Amino acid sequence: MNQITATIGRWQGAGLMATTLLGTGVFILPQMTIALAGDGALVAWLILTLAIIPVALVFGLLSSRFPHAGGPAYFIERAFGPTLGRTIGLIFLLVIPIGAPAAILMTFQFFNALVPLSGWGQVGVELGIVGLLFLLNVRGIQVSAKLQFALTLAIVAVVVTLFGASGANANQFEALSLSNIEFDGVMLAMGVGFWSFLGVEAMTHLANDFRRPEKDMLPAMMIGTVLVGIIYLACTLLLLMLPTPTEGVAMIAAFDHLLGGYGAQVIGILGIASGIATVNVYCASGARLLWSFSREGILPKYFDQLNSAGVPLRGLVSLLLAMAVVIVLSFVTGQELEHLIAWSNGIFVIIYLLAMLSAVRLLSKRFLPLIITGCFFCLGLGFALGSHMWYAILMVLVIAPFMWWQHGHLSRKQLKLNI
Fold it and tell me: How far is the CA of 95 from the CAs of 80, 87, 165, 274, 277, in angstroms?
């Protein structure tokens, strides 16, 4: 086989999108934004949801019109040439072995609510999650898509049930101090909350896995994005209307308060599953990008193979092994992977911005207002990161010359073969 098998539809894609964005923060970030902005956290989530919609629309339009395993790297290559496109693809690949283990580590806030673990016991469970990611992907993305769609429904059901049990009404909403919102607090809350929406770009690598990407890709991405925004708003509103502790996971306390217990079990299991789902999509995306680059001669031919289910197995295994090594090394050396997230996110800001700029050339001019709005969003994220952007800029400056040399070398080699 040399083509990825198209197996997923619109609603499965929406489930993949939603769980990718919900990730490790679905039951944690609302609590953190409330600590920073109080009632202003609602405003922060509303602004973030409205701001990410143009970005998701542009990514959805690009991937529905140009479905390719390269995702943003392919869009950027079509718009600005192979050197920049391949540079962006390579830095995306290099960030996955760091960011994915960090996300796994963050899910243990929920795991510890169920079974407290530390030391090598925690490392063993983290490596077990890596093994689970292999099993989820080896038979094709359709398995993950069905499971993650069910997970999305479960999260929505829990949030709706909690709202129903709270007896929330208009009087409770009016009691919120929305008139005394502090601008600085809202900005700080947005700075924490916007990480929840990073992951839109990962879906574009899976466009060829859709049976009808031209019809289903854009609706799937938009349904998932809007649903995630609603869930974050709902969780934030729920916590604002209930007495919740400052220590521990507030959503667990809210569940216990409203439904009489089992919050650690229900919220913990959903939190763990959602965190794994996010890492799963990034592993699937990275494996497909490895396969695509291998076919084009950018990376070794070793990755240019698919198994009987149309999965780039060698690329998947290589990424998972790299993640396992990082997990073990981080424990042995005592490194806190969360500290690297801000540096890694600078890479995503560059990917997003260049993808928006590529849309100027690749899409109709009638989409220009959306694209400009998306560009302003990306610039705002870069400004919020500040000095952490230097890591991403340095990686581009280091990798781009090599990609430029490789492109010239491959072109000369092809020319000699043609002669």
Answer: 22, 13, 42, 20, 18
pTM of the model: 0.78
pLDDT for 244 equals 63
List of residues 6+ apart from 151 with CB closer than 8 A: 15, 19, 270, 273, 274, 277
Rounded Cα distance between 197 and 20, Å, is 9
Residue 331: exposed, middle, or buried by beta-carbon count in 10 A (0-12, 13-18, 19+)? Answer: middle
Residue with tokens 């590529």, as numbered in its chain: 358
Q: Are 45 and 232 in contact (CB under 8 A)?
A: yes
**Cα gap 327→123, rounded to integer Å:** 7
Collapsing DSSP to helix, strand or coil, 354 comes out as helix
Reading phi first (left if > 0) and then psi (alpha if -120 to 50, else beta), residue 320 is in alpha
Cα(18)–Cα(214) distance, integer angstroms:
20
C-alpha span between 370 and 262 (Å, rounded): 44
DSSP 5: P
pLDDT digits (tens, 9 = 90+) for 37-82: 777 888 888 888 888 888 888 988 898 888 887 788 889 989 998 8
Q: Distances in Å between the alpha carbon of 286 and those of 72, 324, 341?
A: 12, 15, 18
Identify the H or E element spanning 249: none
Give 109-160 pLDDT, tens digit per residue: 677 777 777 778 888 888 888 888 888 878 766 666 777 778 888 888 888 8
pLDDT tens-digit readout, 192-234: 777 677 777 777 877 777 778 778 788 888 888 888 888 888 8
What's the Cα-to-Cα distance from 81 to each of 78, 214, 321, 325, rounded to whole Å? 6, 24, 32, 34
